[in-house]
Design goal:
Number of helices: 5
Structural class: alpha/beta
Number of strands: 6
Order of helices and strands: EHEEHEHEHEH
Oligomer: single chain
CATH architecture: 3-Layer(aba) Sandwich
Length: 194
């Protein structure tokens, strides 16, 4: 069973300029120089250790521009973790978080992380817990945190925390295999022509 690799899909949503791409690049150890605006969708893959087991994690970076919002639904549909990213220095941050959480009601991810970025640029002035209160009755596990993409240790810690919430230790009893039984078929014994 050593060759078994768990796969997790993480999707990032939020307004234009919230810091989604920088967050992902920080987690992956990619320099933050010359970061360009995401057009449509971008995709990253990483091999990570989750609960002492190897895992393949995909990061789907959605564009925050309004014209790409219709594409977002098809990418978040089968996500294990959705990161709702907001800029703590933006006065409209909580309306963006509310809009994203409304969109997630239809897809029901396992974990939703509401992440405030750019903590190195200002103080948190939003009450994120009040904003997410209506969604605490959902079946999601909700994580809230604030970080700076310029501090990779903080971004990696957030991703690891979310992955641990959905990763169960791999035990022989956790793997469910459905047996397939093949029955040999015999050609019909009757004659084909009269």
């Amino acid at each position: 069973m050593d060759s078994f690799v768990r796969r997790y899909k993480c999707c990032f949503v939020g307004d234009y300029g919230a810091g989604k791409t920088c967050f992902i690049r920080s987690v992956l150890g990619i320099p933050l120089d010359n970061v360009r605006t995401t057009l449509g969708i971008d995709f990253f893959t990483a091999s990570m250790c989750v609960r002492n087991e190897r895992a393949s994690v995909t990061f789907w970076d959605t564009a925050g521009a309004e014209r790409y919002r219709s594409l977002m639904h098809s990418y978040i549909r089968d996500s294990d973790i959705v990161f709702v990213v907001y800029d703590i220095t933006s006065p409209d941050a909580m309306s963006s978080v509310e809009r994203c959480l409304r969109d997630l009601e239809q897809v029901s991810p396992s974990v939703v992380a509401v992440v405030g970025t750019k903590s190195d640029l200002g103080q948190l002035t939003h009450d994120v817990h009040e904003t997410i209160q209506p969604w605490t009755r959902q079946q999601w596990k909700i994580v809230t945190c604030v970080c700076s993409s310029r501090q990779p240790a903080s971004t990696k810690k957030i991703v690891q925390k979310c992955l641990r919430l959905i990763a169960e230790p791999l035990k022989p009893g956790n793997i469910k295999l459905n047996p397939v039984r093949l029955k040999p078929t015999r050609p019909p014994t009757g004659k084909c022509c009269a």
